[in-house]
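Continuing the series of single-chain predictions for the mutant panel. This is the parent chain; the variants come on the following pages.
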Amino acid sequence: MKSAQEQLSTYKSVHLNPSNIKTHFVGIPLIIAAIVLLLSLVSLPLGDVIQLTLAQLFFIGAMIYYTMLRFSLAVGLFLFLGPLVYVATIVSNVDNLYLWAIGMFIVGWVMQFIGHHFEKAKPAFVDDLNQLMIGPFFLMAEIYFMLGFEKQLEEEITPIAIEKRRKLEAKLK
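Parent structure:
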């Protein structure tokens, strides 16, 4: 498994433009919320008493993955994703919830592609599908950086990201 530094520097290499990052702060949460809402519509019985939704199972898997990458960022993601999964479970019986979720998903991706227009670089997941899971991890890292936390991580990944971007741009010329 690639390290948090490697994953974040790869993601950041195509997310250096502040306008792109701002659009991602809207787009990624919308996409995550949409996926969680859609996954909350499917419930799986586990025995006679316990029933979990696909959203809850995905949450457990994602939290294991994020914890393995970097515990401190996983805590922030838990505080964001946990309540989201809880609320999605509660509202999963709302009529036409899937339509809201699909709308949120589309708007979220439009925001992503608008951001990459500013960036003048393709999204990270085009070359590595795992980067789809790194988007939320990256945003949490950016929040930590803005709050003055994880400065060493920021100092480690930023120069690597800039170098990766230089190589990418040189390859395109």
